[in-house]
Amino acid sequence: MDLVDDVVTRFDAYARARATRDSLLPTARTTPRHEQQAFDDLQAAVTRLRNGPG
Question: What is the pLDDT of residue 41?
Answer without folding.
Answer: 97
